[in-house]
Design a protein that fits this description.
It is a single chain. By secondary structure, this protein is α/β, with parallel strands linked by helices. It has one domain. Helices cover 47% and strands 18% of the residues. The protein contains four helices and three strands; from the N terminus they run αβαβαβα. A three-stranded parallel beta sheet has the order 1-2-3, sandwiched between helices. The model has no long low-confidence stretch (mean pLDDT 85).
Length: 114
Amino acid sequence: MDLTGTFTEEDLRLLQLLFEEKLKDGSKTVSILFKVKDMSQFKHTDLKALLRGEIWGFKHFNKIGRCAVVAHSDFIKCAVKAESKPLHLISNALEERYFDEEHLDEALRFVDPD
């Protein structure tokens, strides 16, 4: 799934569907790659959809495996570093890392080493 614009209710439904399909295929956890083009995307994001997505994510937190955040932002890089250790303590299956845009291939290998 590739979000090229803002996050909408339709995006949330697609994310949920893809997540559930992966679990039905026998995966115990689902790895995710978030690619953030720039912070301006958040200005027009559907906040209701984003909040519902966050709530849904917390409910399925123990089923998230590796999470790669790809961006070109010192703010996002600091946020990922700050949250990755506490999140891993809550769910030892979760491993979150930040990657600069030029390291997209490395991020893809991180979420799907096979």
